Amino acid sequence: MKVYGDRISGNCLKVQYTADYLGLEYEWVDTDILAGESRTPGYLSLNPAGQVPLLVLDDGRPLAQSNAIITHLARDSVLLPSDPYDRAKVDEWLFWEQYSHEPYVAVCRFVMLYQKKPASEREPWRVERGEGALDLMEQALKGRDWFSGTHLSVADIALLAYTRLAHEGGFDLDTRPTVRGWIARSEDALGIG
Amino acid sequence: MKVYGDRISGNCLKVQYTADYLGLEYEWVDTDILAGESRTPGYLSLNPAGQVPLLVLDDGRPLAQSNAIITHLARDSVLLPSDPYDRAKVDEWLFWEQYSHEPYVAVCRFVMLYQKKPASEREPWRVERGEGALDLMEQALKGRDWFSGTHLSVADIALLAYTRLAHEGGFDLDTRPTVRGWIARSEDALGIG
Question: At B193, is the pLDDT very low, low, confident or very high (cuts 50, 70, 90)?
Fold first, then answer.
């Protein structure tokens, strides 16, 4: 299988982390977002949404959306709990990540790191929601090692991708020790960091 | 089980549509968003994100995020394809809906219907992305009855919720006949409309 991705994107790194953890073989196809390589006619024929990452199976069928890709790769593995409620909580966190975390934490990082703007030029409403998202994670992790179940799951991988880079978007994790502990634990499990 | 929801919210209606289609018994707990009932201390103790819908199982365990809830309710049912790729495509559409459709189509509807503003006061970037989302759906549905597999799935239910109300957000579906056909087909399958 092929993974079209850009390693500046946490969404793409989720796929790398998951596939490497599971020991899956894949070809990484560097796709430069900033150079428009995810908007060419050829790319859009594979993914009309024009986004990375994109998984292309050996038979040519494409699958988009980072959290859908990692859930698919992780099916029947330790990265997805078998208990139905724990499994559903993984989904809850995956959807929360895309709706209430990524549009704030990742977009602020994009503004600072790639648009080269100072923290003060981040949109205030995005900063506020990003801070709120990190606070919610700090509370949710109190007394537990992982976001769902008793093992690292794709929920941890999805949330890790941009949370471990939150400082690049002007967010301070020093005030969130529980999140920091979980980041270290997750990085250790994944062999990254 | 209990469903905390507000029927002005398409996200909440997804749960109603799914549970009713599957013939599941549940108690609907009206939760008035505009009156702040999803932000009370009691509600936040169940769902710290302060969002509806929320599913509370008979043993008291809560599950948030509309698309996680309907996926959980639909497990082992005809609303989730058994083929792994078709199943993954359902997830792709569910994540796309929350990231690339709801924040534009649903938010524009909220502005017009509940904030009582004219269409001209919708944020232009949200309108543009909403139009793009509807165009993408029109293309994706060409030559097929459902978003994934050969049967109505939770992907159709999730996308239906706000698409069938898109006109309330100032979007014109007359130019998207394929989407209109799919709406009619989905409403017929669900017995609504």
Answer: confident
Spell out the residues 6+ positions from residue A10 whose beta carbon is closer than 8 angstroms to its own: A102, A106, A161, A162, A165
For residue A55, CA distances in Å to A2, A174, B51 come to 6, 35, 32
Q: Do A72 and B88 touch (CB under 8 A)?
A: yes
Q: Mark yes or no for CB contact A48/B72 under 8 Å.
A: no
> Would you say the pTM of this structure is higher than 0.95?
yes
Q: Work out whether strand A27-30 and strand A2-5 pair parallel, antiparallel, or are unpaired.
A: parallel
Closest residue to A139, CB basis, from B48, B69, B91: B48
Indicate if A84-190 has the same CATH topology as A2-73.
no
Closest CA–CA distance from residue A56 to any residue of chain B (Å): 11
What are the two backbone dihedrals, phi and then psi, of residue B158, each rounded to the nearest 5 degrees? -65, -45
Contact state of B49 with A96 under an 8 Å Cβ cutoff: yes
Amino acid letter, A159: L
- What pLDDT, on the 0 to 100 scale, is given for residue B148? 98
Q: Which CATH class is domain B2-73?
A: alpha beta
- Tell which of A18, A44, A98, A125 to mutate to test the B interface (max B CBs under 10 Å): A98
Average pLDDT over residues A113-124: 97
- The whole-angstrom distance between B187's CA and the closest CA on chain A is 25
pLDDT in tens, B71-95: 999 999 999 999 999 999 999 999 9
Tokens 């929920």 identify what position?
Answer: A155
Segment B158-170 shows an average pLDDT of 98
Q: State the complex-level ipTM.
A: 0.97
Of B67, B69, B136, the CB nearest to A49: B136
- The hierarchical CATH code for the domain B84-190 is 1.20.1050.10
B24-69 per-position pLDDT tens digit: 999 999 999 999 999 999 999 999 999 999 999 999 999 999 999 9
